[in-house]
Each structure stands twice: as C-alpha cells, then as structure tokens.
C-alpha cells in the first residue's frame, strides 16, 4: 500500500512528465511557426503550412468554471478524457502572424491566462507563473475582435472571459460586475469552415471505433439540420444515434459487438437512475421529475409503490453556452444546477394539449429582469420593460417555466430559466434548457402540475438534490 508521500511523489512525477510533453509540443509548434514566418518574408507566400488558419478549441471545466483555449486537438482530447467539456470551435486564428498570443499558468490556483502583451507576460512570470509558450496568433488584419472581461467576484480559474460575441461582452460588463479589459486579440474569418479534426471523445469515452463525423452527417440529413458543429454532432450520436441504432461509421453496423459495448457503457440503463432519484430530496416533494443529466433530458413518474419509471426520453438537450453551474447569476450564460418546481407551460403558439397549467403569450408579455419586486416574474405591460419580450423570441413557441430563484427571489440571482424549443441554428442557450420542437410538445403534454425540474451535470449529483 502506497504511503501518502509516495503517492504525492508519483503525482508530481506524472505532472512533470505531462508538462515536459506539453513543452515539447509548444517548442515544435513555435519552431514550425517561426520557420513559416521566415519563408513568408523571403518568398512572399503563406502556404507553407498545411493550412493558413487553425481552429481554436474552447474547453470548459465545470468544477472550476475555467475556460481553456487550445489549437492542439490532442490536448483537447486528453482534457475531455479527464472530464472537461468541449464547447466547439471558439474562433479561427491565423496559422502564423507577427502577433503571438502567449499562454501562462499559475500553479498556485490553477489559472491560465492568454495575452499578446509581452510586458504582462513578463510580469506574471516574475510572480511565479509558468510560461507555456505561444498558444496561437492574433490576426494582424484585425478582422474579428476577441473581448476580454474580468470578474472580480469570481474564483481565480474563472475570473477571466474571452469572447467574440459582442452581446455577451455587453451583458457581462453593462448588466453585471464584470470589468471590460479591452480587445485581447483578433481572429480571422474562417477561409475553410470544414472541420479538420472532429472530436470523438465524450464523457471520458472515445467513440472513434464506431463513429466518424463525416460519415454520420452524410448518412443522416436530420443531423446536419440539428447540429451545427462537431461537438453537437457527437453528442447527438451518443444520446440519440446509439439509442436508435444509427450507424456512425462505415463498416461498423449497429449490431456489431464494439457498437453494443459502447452503447451499454454510454447508456447503462435506467435502473441506477431510478435508484438515485429515489434517494433524492426532490423525490419527497413530487411524483414527477423532469431530469436533465448533462445533454440528456428525461421525464420520470413515481408509481403507487414509490418506484420511479422513465416515461419520456432520453432526449438530447442543450443548455447554457457557458455550461452548468451551482452559482448561476443573471446573464452568465450558465444553466443552474439544482431542483426547482415546474411552474407552468406557456407559448406563443396555441396550447398543444398541455397536461399542466398553460399560459398564452400576448404582445404585452414580458419576463421581468427589473431589479424590483417584479424581478423574475411574468409581467403584462403595454410599454417596454427590462427583461425578455416573450412574443419576440422564437424559442418560446413552446416552453415550461421553472421556479428557479422564485422562493425566495434574489435580485440579480438569475431570471427566466425555462425549458424551451431549441434555436434555429444552435442548441446553446443563455441559461435555459433547449429541446427539439417535437420533444418539447411531447414533454408539455406529458407533464402535470406539481412536477419538479432536476438539472445536473452528471449522475453523481442526482441524489444530492
């Protein structure tokens, strides 16, 4: 049996080995980029690399709240095998330019920072940060600005945010306590939007033996309509394709042994979930639960003997573009983790036969974000108010309102958390949960008053709520 000291030594050696491997990758990439830059100057062309641009992968750690950005798809895949979420391609960077963006790491608190300011980099290194080299390059043509914000109230790992979304920048800096720190760097318009290294890892499992991105999208046109990038496509295959027996790779039919093995590992069955629900506090409050576990939504009913049965799902669902969090606040683009009542169904379309109370949207319907007694409530107003004008939002054709932050109400603690129809071009939301239109209608018809919503990032959280 290992002693604590031996375990710490082994862990330190492993980390040092990972750091050395990372540094080798950085050194190689830096030398390659430097060679490319020399050839550009000498010969006047840029096609010295396999491509003139690189995809920047956006990773999210739900435990720390950190976003990490990398051009290395190997690093992306390793992080995913260790529990990180892949949120898709954040932006496109030039393969080389005269403006490098450096990545530094603080070993004291686990924070990464990205900067093109060599002075800021030098100052951080003096303070004990580790230099991880050139992470990527900024566009000298200044095509697409990447905004940098700082949250003084956040933990170290999640204190900075970088985004190309001007609206997200405005929400964080104008409606919340985030501080705008200027344009961090610039991306480029992707000259070739095809995905060169599609992801195959999801929930710590590698599905490459049964899944090929290009084959799957070409084989099922509905996938192309529902999923706009490789991250969504793989999630759809795992959550929907595997369950429905869709072939994901040429030469690997759904009845093959490797397919069946991965299916059983990804979907271990409902018996364990039912037992976790039985142990939850939510089960003591209701006989119906709308359960979200990562990108899977299902509806569960309790029978007369106290046992839980899944009656709808598992359906693929989307959530906040910044992930799921136990610390949701207004405008943070995160879906709250926890248990809260399902208040009522509503929509701009006609009542589809709701099994629960239905409320019809009118031209005067708003969900208030005003910092007063109307915060986080439905308001009918002939004049505009701060909040969401419900009739103007396509996703609210069909929806269910949740009781998040309603009893008691905390001003600024988050409002308008719904389950609603997915966007036309994306599953991501500003904090709600999204479903396909058909699944949303089915859910509304199957739910009854008194139901609860239980939103979790993984199965391990079910019994905690």
How would you characterize the overall build of this protein?
The protein has 465 residues and is an alpha+beta fold. The chain folds into three domains: 13-187, no CATH class; 201-266, no CATH class; 270-464, L,D-transpeptidase catalytic domain-like (Beta Barrel). The chain contains ten helices and 25 strands. It has helices at residues 4-43, 73-81, 118-126, 166-174, 213-219, 221-226, 230-241, 257-266, 270-279, 437-446, and strands spanning 53-60, 67-70, 85-94, 100-106, 111-115, 130-137, 144-150, 160-163, 179-187, 201-202, 205-206, 288-293, 296-302, 308-316, 324-325, 335-336, 338-347, 358-360, 365-368, 378-380, 387-389, 399-402, 418-421, 433-435, 452-456. Strands 12, 13, 14, 17, 18, 22, 23, 24 and 25 form a nine-stranded mixed beta sheet that branches. Strands 2-1-3 form a three-stranded antiparallel beta sheet, with helices on one face. Strand 10 and strand 11 (205-206) form a beta hairpin. Residues 1-8 and 18-50 have low confidence and may be disordered.
